[in-house]
């Protein structure tokens, strides 16, 4: 529907029975409209509000109130955002998939020296209308405080126990090597000695660095390639160019200082409000970047997990889902249903292996046999073509020989003409040498001898040598006729050879055409076979990943059930419908490479998508992923539009009620008017009290649910965490055969407050200490926030709607009995319907608030544990010299022994405080919503049933509207 179609039609100044013309059409759109139709209606509504604003010229308190209401409503018409986080292991192809999603060959910046995204990269729609900034980017740098903190970590990694630069700095995979690379990038002219002598505080204050920290660099361009190159200047590393740092005019690099990159583009996939965020691991050594990544995870509406298809099934990626901690956090966040799985690199396939593993040999056997026949035939033709090339080369050699002889005999003819006596030339064998004669050509000699067999002199010259040549006195002089005869013979031979050569070249062209036809047919067959194998593998992987995902959730559910009460655990009883869980997981098997080739963006690589098994864009599943990205925004867009249109309808009706005039009330006596006003005020007071009680009852139910499912679990699980703490801490320093850590990894972990991601994978000491509580709490947390609280919110909305309906029914019955403002009462019915629709949307609004606050709360456990462990981490970090590892382990266990009785309770109490604050915030929001509804009800009902208004010029304008 276009905006014109969504626009309400004008009515007469005083409608008799269609007073709700505006709201009727709006309500129909709200009830049945698609997101696109709803958005068109919103734009029409904004235009109508602009017209109303222009009419608000009177200096009147009521008019000012209406103007403010209009302004507030217009603010709510802004587009909504749907944040989608993209996660995956190094080399999964996240950035490549996102580039294809954006319909760009290269847009996301990459670092060629590091195979992973260094900082979060946010890509959203570019709403700018400036043709000079079709592409925009913002590069935000970390603060001075964050950089000084990271410098402390880097110096600890770089320097050895003696305070010198570690010898491991040349190993790029070591902690010292990573630290050295970062420091040399930002401070390229510092020597190792200068770095060792410096301090984090001093280096953080260097002018060149201070000028960057905390700033935001804004870029704009008209092409993706241009914005990409400009971003690369900041994001990419110059290590390859720098080599051994022999140059002295090196410039500072920015990549270690980047906090987040934001890109704005006019990609259609983002046009409906999707914001795609390419996330690095949350174990980043830069605390600021790790915090940004963690914050995005908290805000994500959708979560896309990317894994190469050839590893996604074998590695059980969907089941392991990047680790139990990550999987458990999804349970806390309630985002399992928001997960989308993307299998990348589907063009990477071996037909023979795939057909065997998928059991589809019979399906492609005919094509495979035909392809093998074509391959053999092509090899045969290739050998034949080689023979013909040799023959052609022999022809060329023979022509060269004939031309040489022609030159010699033509010279003899000249001498005879001058009266000299000449003899037939005696030629040496192999007198002329050609490069290609280094290759043995057995057919050439035979060919040459047969071609000149008619000429006795030539035959003799081909098989004679200088020693066996007869002396000149034994030879007869040549006559002019002899010479002409020989020249004519050579000419005829040359002509015949050229004709034979043309025939041979024609045959060679036909063979090449045949080879091309074989190759084209072979490519087509291979493409078709690859397409069958790609589809087969996609279908198999899709089903396997869905099942693995469901089984991963099932295992976690069962683990939590056992921890909760092992005596009542029944493995045969499913805690949820896991088939539904599997079926609900969206899985896309994509080939970014094939999609880009089909779109003509890989011209330099000369890749044909059909040759790698993709006949059209839909086969790559990138278009489906683009539609999926747009579809993810539909719920949020529709909800936002409905709220706006509902509020718009209420506002218009309220203004029309305010501007309306009905003389039925003028027939009432003053006493009757007072009785009606008293009745209405009593009715309104009853509604206000009922609303207040409904809010209190709902919040009481919320608190009871938190007590039952979360707070009681604290008391049950804290003792278990206290009991396990020493074993957990001792395990970190155990022998490696018993799961312990290498001493350097242990040291690197304590340097980073217990959080580190090294070659052996990510470790988080704080989370590991908290795991006994986290495991048991996950199910109760999910039960409270994903099941119980939504029911409470729906009950609150239902109760509030019932209260409104009851109030309206009483008011209508009273008005009908008194025959008071019947026309206004009809409009009030429309208002009540609008308020009921507002209340229907309220649970979703409240749930969004609860989701944000509970996600924040669920992330407060571990920071409290980290803070309680900080002294142990500092003590261990400061240990140097002989026996330092033993002292570190002892100090760690001793600190855990001391802190275990308080830190877990502190963590749980902190979260409890956050959840209690959440309850207060939700209560305030409930009160605000019902108070707003009550204020509008009070205004509308007292306007219609409680008093007579005076008509002004502005009111007449409202009536016309």
**Strand order across the largest sheet:** 4-3-5-2-6-1-7-8-9
Distance between the termini: 23 Å
Percent of residues in helices = 55-70%
Total strand segments: 11
Shape: extended
Average pLDDT, rounded to a whole number, is 82
Descriptive overview:
By secondary structure, the protein is of the alpha/beta class. Among the domains are: about 1-75 and about 640-660; about 360-525; about 660-960, no CATH class. It has 33 helices and 11 strands. Strand 10 (about 755-760) and strand 11 (about 760-765) form a beta hairpin. Helix 18 packs across helix 19 (about 440-450), helix 26 packs across helix 33 (about 955-960) and helix 29 (about 765-820) packs antiparallel against helix 31. The longest helix is centred in the middle third of the chain and has 85 residues, at about 480-565. It comes from Truncatella angustata. InterPro entries: DUF7605 (IPR056024), Dynamin_N (IPR045063), P-loop_NTPase (IPR027417).
């Amino acid at each position: 529907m276009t905006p014109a179609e969504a626009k309400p039609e004008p009515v007469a100044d005083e409608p008799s029975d269609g007073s709700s013309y505006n709201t009727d059409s709006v309500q129909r759109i709200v009830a049945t409209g698609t997101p696109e139709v709803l958005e068109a209606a919103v734009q029409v509504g904004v235009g109508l509000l602009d017209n109303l604003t222009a009419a608000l010229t009177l200096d009147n308190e009521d008019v000012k109130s209406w103007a403010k209401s209009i302004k507030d409503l217009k603010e709510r018409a802004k587009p909504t955002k749907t944040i989608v986080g993209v996660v995956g292991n190094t080399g999964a192809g996240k950035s490549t998939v996102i580039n294809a999603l954006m319909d760009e060959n290269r847009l996301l910046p990459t670092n060629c020296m590091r195979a992973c995204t260094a900082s979060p990269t946010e890509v959203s729609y570019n709403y700018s209308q400036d043709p000079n900034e079709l592409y925009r980017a913002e590069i935000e740098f970390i603060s001075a405080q964050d950089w000084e903190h990271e410098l402390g970590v880097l110096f600890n990694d770089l320097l050895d126990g003696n305070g010198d630069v570690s010898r491991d700095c040349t190993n790029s995979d070591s902690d010292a090597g990573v630290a050295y690379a970062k420091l040399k990038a930002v401070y390229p002219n510092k020597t190792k000695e200068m770095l060792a002598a410096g301090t984090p505080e001093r280096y953080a204050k260097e002018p060149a660095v201070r000028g960057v920290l905390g700033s935001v660099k804004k870029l704009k361009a008209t092409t993706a390639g241009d914005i990409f190159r400009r971003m690369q200047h900041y994001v990419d590393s110059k290590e390859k160019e720098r080599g051994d740092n022999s140059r002295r005019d090196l410039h500072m690099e920015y990549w270690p200082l980047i906090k987040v990159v934001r890109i704005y583009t006019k990609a259609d996939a983002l046009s409906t409000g999707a914001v795609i965020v390419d996330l690095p691991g949350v174990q980043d050594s830069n605390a600021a970047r790790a915090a940004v990544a963690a914050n995005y995870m908290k805000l994500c509406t959708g979560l896309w997990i990317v894994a190469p298809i050839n590893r996604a099934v074998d590695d059980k990626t969907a089941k392991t889902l990047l680790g139990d901690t990550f999987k458990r956090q999804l349970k806390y966040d309630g985002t399992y249903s928001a997960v989308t799985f993307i299998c990348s690199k589907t063009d990477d396939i071996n037909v023979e292996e795939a057909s065997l593993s998928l059991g589809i040999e019979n399906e492609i056997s005919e094509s495979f046999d035909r392809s093998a026949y074509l391959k053999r035939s092509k090899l045969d033709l290739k050998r034949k073509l080689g023979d013909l090339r040799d023959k052609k080369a022999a022809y060329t050699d023979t022509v060269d020989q004939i031309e040489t002889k022609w030159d010699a005999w033509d010279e003899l003819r000249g001498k005879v003409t001058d009266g000299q006596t000449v003899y037939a030339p005696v030629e040496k064998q192999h007198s002329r040498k050609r490069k290609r004669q280094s290759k043995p050509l057995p057919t050439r000699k035979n060919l040459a001898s047969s071609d000149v067999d008619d000429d006795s002199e030539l035959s003799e010259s081909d098989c004679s040598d200088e020693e066996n040549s007869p002396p000149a006195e034994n030879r007869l002089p040549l006559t002019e006729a002899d010479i002409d005869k020989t020249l004519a013979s050579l000419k005829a031979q040359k002509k015949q050879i050229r004709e034979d050569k043309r025939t041979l070249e024609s045959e060679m062209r036909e063979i090449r055409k045949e080879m091309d036809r074989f190759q084209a047919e072979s490519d087509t067959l291979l493409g078709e076979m690859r397409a069958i194998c790609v589809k087969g593998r996609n279908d198999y992987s899709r089903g396997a990943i869905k099942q693995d995902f469901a089984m991963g959730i099932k295992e976690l559910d069962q683990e939590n059930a056992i921890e909760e009460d092992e005596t009542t655990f029944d493995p045969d009883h499913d805690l949820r419908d896991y088939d539904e869980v599997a079926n609900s997981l969206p899985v896309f098997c994509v080939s970014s490479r094939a999609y880009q080739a089909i779109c003509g963006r890989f011209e330099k690589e000369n890749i044909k998508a059909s040759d790698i098994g993709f006949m059209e864009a839909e086969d790559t599943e990138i278009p489906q992923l683009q539609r999926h990205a747009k579809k993810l925004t539909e719920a949020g867009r529709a909800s936002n539009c409905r709220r706006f249109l509902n509020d718009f309808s209420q506002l218009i009706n309220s203004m029309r009620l305010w501007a309306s005039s009905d003389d039925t009330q003028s027939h009432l006596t003053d006493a009757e008017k007072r009785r009606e006003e008293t009745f209405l005020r009593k009715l309104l007071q009853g509604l206000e009290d009922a609303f207040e009680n409904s809010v209190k009852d709902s919040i009481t139910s919320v608190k009871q649910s938190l007590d039952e499912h979360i707070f009681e679990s604290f008391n049950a699980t804290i003792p278990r965490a206290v009991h396990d703490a020493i074993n957990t801490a001792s395990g970190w320093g155990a022998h490696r055969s018993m799961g312990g850590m290498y001493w350097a990894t242990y040291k690197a972990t304590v340097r980073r407050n217990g959080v580190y991601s090294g070659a052996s994978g990510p470790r988080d000491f704080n989370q590991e200490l908290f795991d006994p509580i986290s495991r048991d709490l996950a199910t109760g947390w999910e039960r409270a926030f994903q099941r119980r609280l939504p029911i409470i919110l729906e009950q609150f909305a239902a109760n509030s709607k019932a209260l409104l309906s009851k109030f309206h029914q009483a008011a209508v019955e009273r008005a009908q009995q008194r025959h008071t403002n019947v026309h206004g009462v009809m409009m009030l019915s429309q208002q009540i319907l609008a308020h009921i629709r507002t209340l229907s949307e309220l649970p979703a609004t409240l749930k969004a608030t609860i989701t944000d606050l509970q996600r924040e709360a669920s992330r407060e456990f571990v920071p409290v544990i980290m803070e309680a462990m900080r002294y142990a981490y500092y003590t261990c970090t400061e240990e140097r010299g002989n026996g330092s590892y033993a002292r570190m382990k002892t100090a760690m266990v001793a600190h855990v022994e001391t802190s275990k009785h308080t830190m877990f309770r502190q963590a749980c109490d902190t979260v409890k405080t956050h959840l209690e604050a959440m309850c207060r915030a939700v209560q305030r929001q409930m009160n605000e919503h019902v108070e707003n509804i009550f204020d509008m009800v009070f205004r509308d009902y007292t306007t219609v049933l409680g008093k007579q208004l005076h008509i002004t010029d502005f009111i007449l304008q409202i009536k016309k509207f």
